[in-house]
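User: Could you go from structure to sequence for me? I need the amino acid at each position, not a summary. Structure tokens:
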């Protein structure tokens, strides 16, 4: 059983490891970091929804967590940052418009 806190910590550690080890391979670094950012955003959404880092993290909790975040104006950053993170994988390119929306 993975807790929400562990999921967030794991995504954070993976992002840091990727940045440390893949600085010479920007394409792979970008792909890996985007994938892990999605995991991080999902973990934070579940954390905000459950109000507990000790709650069990499972993918059934992600949709309610994202819906909760979307429904709260103070968390609307998720709308700007989440869209570019939905498409991950080798063919996923983040559009310039999506990057401007994040800034």
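Assistant: Here is the amino acid at each position, in order:
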């Amino acid at each position: 059983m993975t807790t929400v806190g562990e999921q967030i910590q794991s995504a954070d550690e993976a992002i840091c490891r990727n940045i440390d080890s893949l600085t010479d391979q920007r394409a792979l670094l970008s792909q890996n970091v985007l994938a892990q950012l999605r995991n991080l955003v999902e973990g934070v959404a579940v954390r905000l929804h459950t109000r507990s880092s000790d709650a069990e993290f499972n993918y059934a909790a992600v949709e309610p967590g994202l819906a909760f975040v979307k429904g709260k104006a103070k968390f609307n950053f998720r709308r700007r940052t989440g869209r570019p993170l939905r498409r991950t994988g080798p063919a996923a390119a983040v559009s310039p418009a999506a990057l401007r929306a994040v800034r």
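One structural detail worth keeping in mind: Residues 4-102 form one domain.
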